[in-house]
Specification:
5-stranded parallel sheet, alpha/beta, 3-stranded mixed sheet, Helicase, Ruva Protein, domain 3, 19 helices, AAA+_ATPase, Zinc Finger, Delta Prime, domain 3, 428 residues, Rossmann fold
């Protein structure tokens, strides 16, 4: 057993050994009470790597005393599923833990799902991807619980580390390890809520430390060196990566420079520069918009510079762009106006294009009545340039107003012009 990784050996054997995730498996939760009373429902466990999905499945199996089988949907075949179905027929009821359940194919489903439905197989699926996006509806419908796990707190991780240091049977308790509380907290902080990373890091630190007088002495520089990048999380293209993109945009929209820079740092550490640049460019027009129309050009220049430079230098222009957007006036009026127009079209608010707006650059246009257009440049209007009162929208939507100005930044000036032109149109 000691040849197995520490993180594997320290998995909880029952519900009472689970550290963290008390919001779904704590003693006061419905799930805990159901399992303690002998009922285990099929469920989906959703969350980032290393935060306890497999551990909770093992703990449920240990507390329920039911036969436990584990498969990974990435490489499990139909025969693997059939073997578990056969076992369920023999013993009456089993728990199947299916990791990466979002990769479950139709053939596997057809073999397994009837037995999940009749209760002979209790399915505990685990996924790092959003189950409402990536897990087949047939599986979701048979899982009574869809549980979202949280990253473990620093205190939770510190407790796991302490448990591993004290456990003589499965952990490092038989070894005299000299490690300070400060070093334990540093490991807990570096693991960024990932229990597997924390225990893997602890094990690496143990093997990298010197033994003096039959004691293993943990030194600060070993902890610092091995902890350098362990806090980075969020696989490219996965659900958490898109959560980071969402958090970045919402932080910029909320003008929180510190949060925006924090999420930008995480995204760049994951290395998908193109996705970050695309999102920043969208944000410039979606969230800043007409309130500061120069931002679009600035962000475009910053993202092009970033792509030319590559990482790590790309972080410099992108940091400038993010802070400028955070502290800029903001408006979503332009794209909101477009969305309102699209909605109107889908609601059937369409009509004939006024004759004077139709193409008149061909022989016969006058015959069709495509006449009467007034060229605005022929009607000077102060310093505005040219404007003339004529109808542009179809008759049945002529009075619709899709654009609603936001009185912020540069758009305040545009809003004043918009209102003035409206007053001319009304003849006031």
């Amino acid at each position: 057993m000691q040849n197995e990784p520490l993180a594997f050996r320290m998995r909880p054997r029952n519900l009472n050994e689970v550290v963290g995730q008390q919001h779904i498996i704590g003693k006061d939760t419905a799930l805990y009470k159901m399992i303690e009373n002998g009922h285990v429902p099929s469920m989906l466990l959703y969350g980032e790597p290393g935060i306890g999905k497999t551990s909770i499945a093992n703990a449920i199996a240990g507390s329920s005393k039911l036969p436990f089988f584990s498969l990974n949907a990435t490489h499990a075949g139909k025969k693997d599923v059939e073997q578990i179905v056969s076992e369920a027929r023999l013993v009456g009821k089993v728990i199947l833990f299916l990791d990466e359940i979002h990769r479950f194919n139709k053939l596997q489903q057809d073999t397994l799902l009837p037995h999940v439905e009749n209760g002979s197989i209790i399915l505990i699926g685990a996924t790092t991807e959003n189950p409402f996006h990536d897990v087949n509806p047939a599986i979701r419908s048979r899982c009574g619980e869809i549980l979202q796990l949280k990253r473990l707190s620093q205190d939770d991780i510190a407790k796991l580390i302490s448990n591993a240091l004290e456990d003589e049977e499965r952990g490092l308790g038989k070894i005299d390890i000299v490690i300070s509380e400060e070093q334990i907290q540093k490991i807990a902080l570096a693991s960024n809520g990932d229990a597997r990373k924390a225990l893997t890091l602890l094990e690496s630190i143990y093997y990298a430390s010197d033994e003096v007088d039959n004691k293993t002495i943990v030194q600060d520089h070993i902890v610092e060196h091995l902890s350098e990048r362990i806090g980075v999380y969020g696989d490219k293209g996965g659900s958490h990566f898109y959560n980071l993109l969402s958090a970045l945009q919402k932080s910029v929209r909320g003008s929180d420079t510190n949060a925006a820079i924090y999420y930008l740092a995480h995204l760049l550490e994951n290395g998908d520069l193109i996705a970050v640049c695309r999102r920043l460019l969208v944000m410039a027009y979606e969230d800043i918009g007409l309130a500061n129309s120069a931002v679009g050009a600035h962000v475009y220049a910053a993202t092009e510079a970033a792509k030319t430079l590559g990482l790590p230098e790309a972080r410099i222009p992108l940091a400038n762009a993010v802070i400028e957007m955070c502290l800029s006036p903001k408006s979503n009026s332009a794209y909101s106006a477009l969305d309102a127009a699209i909605s109107a079209i889908h609601e059937g608010k369409t009509g004939e294009i006024p004759l004077h707006l139709r193409d008149g650059h061909y022989a016969g246009a006058k015959t069709l009545g495509h006449v009467g257009y007034k060229y605005p440049h022929d009607y000077p209007l102060g310093t505005f340039g040219g404007w003339v009162d004529q109808q542009y929208l179809p008759d049945n939507v002529a009075n619709e107003e899709f654009y609603k100005p936001v009185i912020a930044g540069e758009e305040k000036r545009m809003a004043a012009i918009y209102d003035k032109l409206k007053s001319f149109k009304k003849g006031t």
